[in-house]
Amino acid sequence: MMSIIVRTMTRLVTPAVLIFGLYVIMHGHVTVGGGFQGGAVFASAAALLLAAFGSERIREHLKLPDLTVISCVGALLFAGLAFGGLGKTFFYNFLVGSPLFGHVPEFGPTHEDIWTGGVIAPMNIGVALNVVAGLGAIMLLMALASRNKGDKE
Amino acid sequence: MARRVFTGATLVLVAMMLFAVALAMRPFGEPPSAMDDYIIQNTQEVTGANSAVAAVVFDWRGYDTLGEATVLFTAFTGVAMLLRRRKDESG
């Protein structure tokens, strides 16, 4: 566990980092970014918490079985959406034109519309779940493995 | 000594290659292939996404992204397998 200055700043900064990561994930099909990038931003908040508060305290809130389930759900969502287009071909964008994320923008620079992109938007969310839980679990496991025996941190 | 000469020659060669690539670079916004023109012209109509990069990653080349997600998932599985807690260990 680090000093009270680091802990206080972590408490202040972490919500902003989480919100920015969520923004990058949700707007991946409209602006730059996407599931991988937003997921990495989201997971960096977990790295900050691990560095500031220590792995012993974080593991009480971030359970490894939960992270495993979230990562698997994300990967299955991504692969399942890819299989969803199998009527035409693997990875066919079958949601274009449907009520869910089916709006088609005009050509050229347009106003921001979140209900575009078809299958890309839910795929972003699936990949983000995979990345967030995967990176978070990797960091947590490494922090737990590298701590010293009997060390209070 | 021979090792130093080899290292220096390699560095000079790599630098010359980098300079050759930099000098042969096409002007900004004029890529040589027709495929990027096709993607720019058709991304919004076909995929409905405003971000052409996201459309390339998740739609045009979605199979590639499936592999990337699988790589990450495999890395997570490997780390979890290597660093798992053993039964006789309390911590």
Report on this model:
The complex is a heterodimer of chains A (153) and B (91). Chain A has helices at residues 4-26, 35-53, 55-58, 64-84, 120-146. With 153 residues, chain A is mainly α. In chain A, helix 1 (4-26) packs antiparallel against helix 2, helix 2 packs parallel to helix 5 (120-146) and helix 4 runs antiparallel to helix 5 (120-146). The model of chain A has no long low-confidence stretch (mean pLDDT 89). The mean pLDDT of chain B is 87. Chain B has one domain. Helices cover 71% and strands 0% of the residues of chain B. Chain B contains four helices and no strands. Chain B has helices at 2-23, 35-47, 52-60, 62-82. With 91 residues, chain B is mainly α. Chain A binds chain B through residues 28-34, 36, 64, 68, 71, 75, 78-79, 82, 90-91, 93, 96-97, 101-108, 110, 112-113, 116-120, 123-124, 127, 130-131, 133-135, 137-138, 141-142, 144-145, 149, and chain B through 41, 44-51, 53-55, 57-59, 62-63, 65-66, 68-70, 72-73, 75-76, 79-80, 83-84, 91.
Total number of domains of chain A: 1
Distance between the termini of chain A: 5 Å
Broad shape of chain B: flat
State mean pLDDT of chain A (0 to 100 scale).
Answer: 89
Q: How is the main sheet of chain A built?
A: none
- Oligomeric state as shown: heterodimer
Tally of helical runs of chain A: 5
Helix content of chain B: over 70%
User: Largest interface: which pair?
Assistant: A-B, 51 and 31 residues
Strand content of chain B: under 5%
Cα radius of gyration of chain A in angstroms: 19 Å
The separation of the N and C termini of chain B measures: 52 Å
Number of distinct beta strands of chain A: 0
Helix content of chain A: 55-70%
Low-pLDDT stretches of chain B are none
- Poorly predicted residue ranges of chain A: none
